[in-house]
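[Backbone geometry]
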Amino acid sequence: MKKNINSKNINRREFLKRLGMGTAAVSAVSLTGCGSKQTSASEGSKELGEIPTDQMTYRTNPTTGDKVSILGYGCMRWPTKENPDGSGKDIIDQETVNDLVDYAIEHGVNYFDTAPVYCQGMSETCTGIALKRHPRDSYFIATKMSNFGVAGKGLSPKESFDTSVEMYKKSLTNLQTDYIDYYLLHAVGGGNGMETLNERFFDNGLLEFLLKEREAGRIRNLGFSYHGDIAVFDYLLSRHDEFKWDFVQIQMNYLDWKHAKEINSSNTDAEYLYGELVKRNIPAVIMEPLLGGRLSNVPDHIVARLKEKEPERSVASWAFRFAGTYPDVLTVLSGMTYKEHLEDNLRSYCPLEPLDDEELKYLQDTAGLIVQYPTIPCNDCKYCMPCPYGIDIPAIFVHYNKCVNQGNVPENSQAENYREARQAFLVGYDRSVPKLRQANHCIGCRQCVPHCPQNIKIPRELHRIDNFVEELKQGKV
């Protein structure tokens, strides 16, 4: 397979041909392919035997001496089921959550990351229920100050402080604990950058309160998770000698390492973020190692490229090994909805086999190929939900991205695979997103925009997708 291809001035079909895969090979998928959610990340690993329960790789927190599993459980995407009350609103499947937590702990996972806003407010409670069944010293709980609502609302400093402290105390109650191991200022850098940071944490005295909670032992480690304005990240690190951050959570994966701005102009390369933490000996907690699943659902020619190198490993395992390779990474978070995801990630980390220099270069070459055909940078975090008009924003973006990856977004009606791609996109759209929740219902109210950590111009993207759908239906594309 050729590696040094200058593809910037060639079309998609020619690009894929030069890689040794024709357009037909890339786009030959079933009609359900675009719309069906990926339920297994463990392709290629099913024949590898039992997963050892005593081989998890651990990293040591230099501040506290905590030995933290390199695989951390992200509790943003717990499985749901239909509410038996017939309301039509899904609820967390607590029994399945309990089973997943038990299996993770049995195999050495000891870091569980949640937040008040995850799973539309249900994550902390169900995580607390599952963890309470295990000895408190057998796991670390991470949760966050998700006080986005106090910014830009005209609250007085006291009102802002009281609302935030209430959220903090509710987290302790929901998690059924009297202390939190890892507590974060959630998603700093969003909103209006420094202005929003000051309103959420400085002007109201909240950070001072949290520092005192750390002194009292109710918070064992204090840090922040970063999205957005790099000035905020740099400012908080510039005051590290004063605040003594115990850890910092950043978005890091092999695509964002050097190509973050190509994916989203508001982002900063993970190479810089990680490097700044290393300079200060601050452990890094990694979020979005798979970019919301996009690095486990890459275009078919990328799958072939990775499988050529490591046929028995899953596509996702490359991303997890990449994140874990860097020594100042404390843990790598994964939102594992299905047991197959958990099993595959355990295989990557029980124990971790770090990437060597040749493999790291191979991944960077791979990243360069992926960014030639960018998708919408949605990580399916659901911070934009619920939409007041019922639109399923993440599902729309997930469907669109999957079709981009599979070659089912035809450039025009003369494209070689036009009929198949058109049908796959439209049928998959209706199957994955109910008609009343599709993009044509967006009125551009922009209520979702401030909540997106990736700074996606959500109404603009929804209208673009809706226009594309209408043109497909009329055969104008």
DSSP finds 18 helices and twelve strands in the chain. The CA atoms of residues 275 and 328 lie 10 Å apart. Residues 1-46 have pLDDT under 50 and may be disordered.
